[in-house]
Amino acid sequence: MNYLTRVVDSHFRKNPDGSVVFHPWGLVGRGYVISEPERAARLRTFVRVHFLTTLAVFTGAGMMFRHRGLEMLGALMVLLLPGYIVGIRLILSGAPRNADGHSPQEYYASKAAGMSEKNLRQGFMAAVVFAAGGVFLLLFSHAFQDRLFGGITAVAAMVIAIVHRRMLRSKRPR
């Protein structure tokens, strides 16, 4: 199972009765009960394509617009997010909402299910290194844009480190 499959799978949860619940925003909010397998397949394909498109667009824009990177990434987010919202709503039209939400423990366990502890530890350590680099830029850069980039990188990397740490904890027996 590759990383992209795990990212897509983390949006889905199987209920004890066999129904599938799709959580479009991951940990945040309630999900939608998906009773038709073809609708679940369409959702999986849409989430996969949107993730790959976003990754490709952000990577390309980051390389092409290095000096205006933050402004460009913000503009791209404003353009890509409505596409996700509209696409999800079209596929989910008529699907009932799930009565209960996604507990944080379930979310982290589902994200960690296909990952080894070694990979999770490596991800955690990489995030800590990026957070330290962001803090360094924030504290020691003279240009405002470099400090802003450092602050955003530090915060994002700290969030990623926290998520990896919680996924590691979900793999340990209690």
Describe, in short, the structure shown.
This protein is of the alpha+beta class and 174 residues long. Helices cover 69% and strands 9% of the residues. The protein has two domains: 1-102, no CATH class; 115-174.
Q: Any overview of this molecule?
A:
By secondary structure, the protein is of the alpha+beta class. The protein folds into two domains: 1-102, no CATH class; 115-174. Helices cover 69% and strands 9% of the residues. The chain has six helices and four strands. It has a four-stranded antiparallel β-sheet. Helix 1 (3-9) crosses helix 2 (37-64), helix 2 (37-64) packs antiparallel against helix 3 (69-92) and helix 4 (104-112) packs across helix 6. It is globular and about 55 Å long. It starts with a helix and ends with a helix. The mean pLDDT is 82.
